[in-house]
Amino acid sequence: MKAKALLLTSLGVAALLAVPATAWFLAAQPRQASNLVFANAGSDLRSTDVESALKELSLRVKQVEGGQVALQGAAMLQQTQIGSVQAAGEEQRAATEARISALEGKMTESVTTRKRLEYSDSASSISVAANYTHLRDIGSFGKNAATTGLLLTWSTHIDAMGEPGTFCDFQIRVDGRPDEEREGGGGRAVVYVPPNASGGSSPVTVSALFGRVGPGQHTVAVWLRGTSRECLENYGNFPRAVIVEEGPRG
């Protein structure tokens, strides 16, 4: 009997507790979304209407995106301006290099350079004719500028063998062409066979001016004409030279 009384008492207490809870649950009404407060801490976005808040947030996002597009356009414009500045810098650099090259060219033209073409062997011919023919090459040199002139100075010893009054006429040339600054050409060394003799001999130093020789490599040679039986240059194989000077035209 006591057990049954205890069970009934427990059921009664539970029923008493269930009634208020059920009443509260049934009395509670669902809250409308329009009544919810939408607040974002740290910003000024506050609204009681969720839909309006979302629209306002979407508008803010579009504004930010528009700002990003504007920034991208400004960046592209800046990049274009940088490209223009770089192109202008390249043009200025090229112009500066051209001016420097021109100045270097002027300096090259205004400075005299010298080269010595040395040799020590002899040359001779027994087939001397009235017109110039090639006797020997002396050496090669390089010319730097197109507007400069050349002065060649040649020191050697020449001999003529034959009847009295005959002669040997030696001439230095560049690329087979004579000095054209003088009538008949410069750079000539002539030796005669004197009377009552079978030969003539003489040390000589001659010069020649060349004003129409372009830049690049060129060859100095000796050409010969005459009436003697035999003509000899540097008989005895002594050290000889041609000095080549490049400088401003006079």
Largest sheet: 6 strands, antiparallel
Structural class: alpha+beta
The topology string of helices and strands comes to: HEEHEEEEEEEEEE
3D shape: rod-shaped
Assess the beta-strand content as a share of residues. 25-35%
Task: Tell me the helix content.
Answer: 25-40%
The total domain count is 2
* Span between termini: 150 Å
Radius of gyration: 55 Å
CATH architecture of the largest domain: Sandwich
What are the low-pLDDT stretches, counting only 5+ consecutive residues below 50? Answer: 12-19, 21-26
Give me the count of strands. Answer: 12
Number of helices: 2
Text of the CATH class of the largest domain:
Mainly Beta
Mean pLDDT: 82
CATH topology of the largest domain: Jelly Rolls
Chain-wise SSE layout:
Layout: H1 2-27, E1 38-39, E2 46-47, H2 50-110, E3 113-119, E4 123-125, E5 133-143, E6 149-161, E7 167-174, E8 188-192, E9 199-210, E10 216-226, E11 230-233, E12 240-247
Antiparallel strand pairs: 1-2, 3-12, 4-11, 5-10, 6-9, 6-11, 6-12, 7-8, 7-10
Provide the descriptors you would attach to this structure in a database record:
single chain, 250 residues, Jelly Rolls, 2 domains, 4-stranded antiparallel β-sheet, 34% strand
Would you mind describing this structure in some detail?
Helix content is 35%, strand content 34%. By secondary structure, the protein is an alpha+beta fold. It folds into two domains: 34-110; 113-247, Jelly Rolls, CATH 2.60.120.40. The strands form three sheets. Strands 3, 4, 6, 9, 11 and 12 form a six-stranded antiparallel beta sheet that branches. The longest helix has 61 residues, at 50-110. The relative contact order is 0.16.
